[in-house]
Structure formats: structure tokens, C-alpha cells
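Protein chain data
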Amino acid sequence: MERLERDPPARIGDAELLAARTLAARMVEAVTAAVEVRSQLLDHVVTCLVAEGHILIEDLPGVGKTTLARAVARSLDLQFARVQCTADLLPADIVGTNVFNQREDRFEFRPGPIFANVVLVDEINRASPKTQSGMLECMQERSVTVDVHSHELARPFVVLATQNPVEFEGTYPLPEAQVDRFMARVSLGYPSSAGEVAMLRAHETGDRVDAIEPVATAAELLGVQDAARRVHASDALRGYVVSLLGRTREDPRVDLGASPRAGLMLLRAAKARALLKGRDHVLPDDVQAMADVVLAHRMVLAPEAVDVTGERIVADAVAATPAL
């Protein structure tokens, strides 16, 4: 039997390249008008949105994690939902549940907040392991199974989660399986002195996030996401990604290196970055630029690895892996 070959993806036109860059520029302008955030970090966030990836915002209390997530959500004309995680939060509180309708004498499904387009999961590590595990299917397969019935989530769909890495009382560490489902982890850090003064001035009269007007519709974002999937990646480029993953797995300072899912997400993020840079093909520069935020949080370090971070592991792997 003759083997059927898939048709090559449609070429990305100049109009799509322009639309992607315009959407990203509008989002950056809207968010930075309300939040003091580094341009490189915001570029990573927008890139992951275009790549259809979930984002974990991890940093110290009070540096603007939730504010950034809210600002990104408000810049998009999409359905938004927020989940405030607590120890008594149940999986049904997030994904929904079946409720008996006495009038019609049957059960009907009541969807939870996870069915929104943009879901802010605040302080995700305060949710119990049972509740955290309830989000695995949502984040990977973009569907929910309740009482053997599967329900598709909205498109586009992205989870913006926040957590405080230094507060341990009343928190539960995220399991590796869930951490691996976040395309990227970003940290805000403290603003510069000038930036902090500007922030104090800007927020004296109220919350500027509430003043953000949506700058992108669902159709526009879906169109850019579709174009990102069609960005060309050569076999040599894919081989470079695999070699990079292999370096992390072979590092003696690591117990668990980057997974195959990490490679898929790194390639998707690199494609999105290439599109936002105005190109229809991926370069090693795109892979290297996204490697830190996509791979570092997936590293499980060996117990004897003292004063070593996931970021250092990834940086060493990039430096040791020959580019094309």
C-alpha cells in the first residue's frame, strides 16, 4: 500500500508576519502601561501565549506576579476567570461538576472556571495535591473528563499561575508532572529604583490594570497561533533541540533532565519567537533565547549539587552544544 504523505504546511505570508508583530506590540504597550516589568520578560510571556503555552510566574511576595497575570489577561478580549487557591479547594471547584436537575430529572454539567480562555490560578502551590492533579488533563489535553464524559475547553486556552517559592507554611510543592506542563517559568524580580518610583506614582490613585482596554480578539490570537505552528523548522534544527535536551540529561549534577515534552515546548516557543521576529523559519538563536525559561524549571538537581541552579544547567548545556 502506498504511504500517504501529509501536505506541507501553508506558507506564512507577509500579512501574517505583520499581524503577529502588531499583536505583540499592542499587548506589550498595554501591559507596560499598567505594570513595571522588564521588556525581555514580557517578550517571553507574549511568545508563550503565541505558542499556546501555559506560564508559571514565580517570585517573592509583592513584586507584581498577580498584577502581571491580570494585565496580560485584560489586554486580550477573551473570557477571563480567576481561581484563588486554598488548602480546601477541590478539583470540582476548578473543572466543574455534574448537578442533578430536578425539573428535568437528569444530571447536567456545570463547568468550572477552567473553561475560560485565560485562567489565572493564583498561589497554585496552596492547592492540595489532589486539586493540582485535577489540572493535569486540562493543561495537557485541553479537555476535562467528569464521570467518564469528556468536555472540550475553550480555544484559545492558557493558564497563568503564580506561586511564592519561599513560603512553605500551608503550601504543597508542585509535582514534576505538573511543572512539566508549564511551557515557561518567569520571575519578575525587584524593579529598578526609578521604576519603583514610577510605579508608586502611577498607582497612587488606583489600580491601573482596571484601565487596560483589550487590544486583541480571540480570532486575532488564534490566527497568530496558527501561523506560529506553521513556522518552518528544519530537521537539523530539530536535531539541535534534541542534542540540547541530551546535554541536560547527561549532566552529572542532574537527577532528571529535560523531557521529550520539554523539547516539544521548546520548539513551539522557538517557532513563536521566530514569527514575532518577522521570520517564517526557526534559527538556533530562537532556541537559545527560549531555552532558559522553557527548560530551567524542569531540572531536578542531584542532592550533591550544591549552589547549582536549573538556569546554570541550561546555560552550560547551551554553551556546550554546537549550533547549526
Q: What stands out?
A: Residues 232-324 form a domain with the Helicase, Ruva Protein; domain 3 fold (CATH 1.10.8.80). The chain has a mean pLDDT of 88.
